[in-house]
Amino acid sequence: xxxxxxxxxxxxxxxxxxxxxxxxxxxxxxxxxxxxxxxxxxxxxxxxxxxxxxxxxxxxxxxxxxxxxxxxxxxxxxxxxxxxxxxxxxxxxxxxxxxxxxxxxxxxxxxxxxxxxxxxxxxxxxxxxxxxxxxxxxxxxxxxxxxxxxxxxxxxxxxxxxxxxxxxxxxxxxxxxxxxxxxxxxxxxxxxxxxxxxxxxxxxxxxxxxxxxxxxxxxxxxxxxxxxxxxxxxxxxxxxxxxxxxxxxxxxxxxxxxxxxxxxxxxxxxxxxxxxxxxxxxxxxxxxxxxxxxxxxxxxxxxxxxxxxxxxxxxxxxxxxxxxxxxxxxxxxxxxxxxxxxxxxxxxxxxxxxxxxxxxxxxxxxxxxxxxxxxxxxxxxxxxxxxxxxxxxxxxxxxxxxxxxxxxxxxxxxxxxxxxxxxxxxxxxxxxxxxxxxxxxxxxxxxxxxxxxxxxxxxxx
Length: 461
What we know:
The chain is of the alpha/beta class and 461 residues long. The chain has helices at 6-12, 39-48, 78-94, 109-115, 147-156, 181-192, 207-210, 214-222, 238-244, 253-263, 312-321, 347-357, 375-383, 386-392, 442-451, and strands at residues 15-18, 24-27, 30-33, 58-61, 97-99, 124-127, 141-144, 158-161, 165-172, 200-205, 231-233, 276-281, 288-290, 298-300, 336-339, 367-370, 396-397, 418-421, 436-439. Strand 1 (15-18) and strand 2 (24-27) form a beta hairpin.
């Protein structure tokens, strides 16, 4: 019998039944919900006159629509206030654990799961949010689902899914100066495009990946969806186990020992088959930046915007961004820097930023927002004195939420203005109508805030 991939092992262990020639009925271990994609699902349950099949495996938080200043005050935006209120009412009615505004565990759904120990190896994890792939960093099969599927999981603890193919992305070698996990994933996206992993689940492997911290691995898996993949995962190892141990909902005592034995079996067998394999050399990865309107339109920070005379979409993207083919982005004036999102809002990200800006001042033309991914990250940042370093440099440390990652709350970028952002998407209007988003790492974002123009972090390190 041929060996199995990590993905095969986890997926196959959760198949309840298989529709002949059709999808699998997949059991779900952990279901995360938030205020945007859950109201219609709860309404569907009411219409059917049914409750949650296993409410103890669903966890809710408010993140997309919440303000990031004055969270103790009523939400000003009426739609946002309505959705957050609805989440509160639905969780109370259906018996779902809620980390709402004001709760010490509130935060972005893909930040709180790992930090609370809810996210564990070998699990199947879903959420009505495309960046659920973040949790794959733990060796979980984690993916986003639609609202009708959210209802399916609430009602049955299962979801119907076609099994994706397997794709391996192998990266080996040490990283160069100023290169971090965000640069790795922007580099990969630039190489294989936003459709290069369509229909696949990605496993990231190689010495470069194994050398990353858990928070860096989460950044990598988070953006798997931006290459068309259903999700991404990394085999759990000693780094994973150390991160989980002792967290609030992590197994303890004998249960920990039992789970660890299982987790240690979660790796791809040597003779396992991948449908597609990509190999990259870490030495070729530099600090990256995007120039277009999808995450695959990325270049090394000192490269020029590529020429593509044949592509209408390429020209349209450059038109939206106000850029020219052959132009260099280095030195371009930027008025907004956003550090946050489920991609880069963890404590390590904030430490990176603080390490760059300590003892320096941001440029007067820049508005620099730093949004912690959760209340726990915010508290830790203050305990470590990162808040003082950021504030002395002129950065604004706000309260947790999705913030300016997406134009769904009050933190929007004005039309026509550039924002260097640590988030995951640079689609047209993503950060507000007409906003121009340039994706980058926390290091590049911090350097840009200091100079007021797009800056190569290696020049100021």
